[in-house]
Design goal:
10 helices, three-stranded mixed beta sheet, alpha+beta, elongated, 296 residues, 27% strand, five-stranded mixed β-barrel
């Protein structure tokens, strides 16, 4: 028997569009009335160490939503893996609990679809915390197939161009986004705690300045004037010091019309800060403190 040839992505997308069209005929294709009350990571952190003999009597009701990443169909009972922004949790779906129509619908849903599930917590025989589903809804139909479930996206160029797909399938990528957000928040907190005022300065400059770099050039129609995307916020921050603010900082985007690499992007986030009455030793010591605080 010859193996089934892999389906073309365009064919898969066409099939998913047909499914979406059928859903539209039944009513609201993208319902927005499902409000998840629980997150996968929180449930695992709170109940992951409990045994099934402890969980079952409590009948802990949960409500979760996320993307269907894995699905294992087994007759009248099936498993699915739901992924939300915090992590993954397993769903246990049965025909007895959902009824024939809802269970048959679940069997035809695709990986990548976004679901809302309600049910109670229990542990499988392998010890995995799961949701015994009593209610299951399709919230958003995914029109494009996910990357290979075992290898994910392996092309680095594609990862950069389709970051949303990379985030969907690679937990390490999502963790980097979270780590960056926490680092920026930590830096901002440290600056404020040390008496710095956060400000926002103009992005459009009448003359390029603040660093030796090639600017992006644009035209301001209302002023009929050539303008430049800022290379650095330095000059405007120094004006604020002149105006009487003794400590200022800004975390924002700057632009330099130069080469592209993994270490240099023409559009990037930069922090600059200035403090009156400090010398270069004060600035070096403070910068080390900022980095230590952000790295904790």
């Amino acid at each position: 028997m010859e193996p089934t040839p892999p389906q073309d992505d365009n064919q898969l997308i066409a099939e998913r569009r047909e499914k979406l069209a059928a859903i539209r005929q039944q009513g609201v294709a993208f319902p927005n009335d499902f409000k998840p009350k629980d997150r996968a990571a929180d449930l695992i952190r709170k109940h992951g160490a409990q045994g099934n003999e402890e969980l079952e009597p409590q009948a802990i009701k949960v409500s979760v939503a996320g993307r269907l990443m894995l699905k294992r169909l087994m007759g009248k009972a099936s498993f699915g893996t739901l992924q939300d922004s915090s992590g993954r949790i397993q769903l246990f779906v049965t025909k007895d609990a959902l009824g024939d129509a809802a269970y048959d619908a679940f069997k035809h849903w695709d990986l990548g679809d976004i679901l809302g599930a309600e049910g109670t917590l229990f542990k499988t025989k392998t010890g995995e915390l799961s949701v015994r589903v009593s209610s299951l809804r399709l919230l958003t139909k995914s029109l494009r197939p996910l990357p290979d479930k075992f290898h994910g996206m392996t092309d680095q160029e594609q990862k950069y161009r389709q970051r949303y797909v990379d985030l969907m399938t690679d937990e390490d990528s999502r963790d980097r986004f979270v780590a960056r957000s926490k680092a920026v928040s930590s830096i901002r907190q440290y600056m404020v705690e040390h008496g710095f005022l956060e400000v926002e300065t103009p992005m459009l400059h009448p003359i390029p300045g603040g660093a030796n770099a090639k600017p992006f050039v644009t035209h301001h129609n209302a002023l009929d004037q050539q303008m430049f995307l800022r290379i650095a916020p330095e000059l405007y921050l120094k004006r604020l010091i002149v105006g009487g603010f003794e400590r200022v900082f800004e975390i924002n985007r700057s632009f330099r019309n130069e080469g592209i690499s993994v270490r240099h992007n023409p559009e990037f986030t930069m922090m600059e800060f200035y403090a009156a009455y400090w010398d270069h030793h004060d600035l070096m010591d403070f910068t080390e403190g900022v980095l230590r605080h952000a790295a904790r």
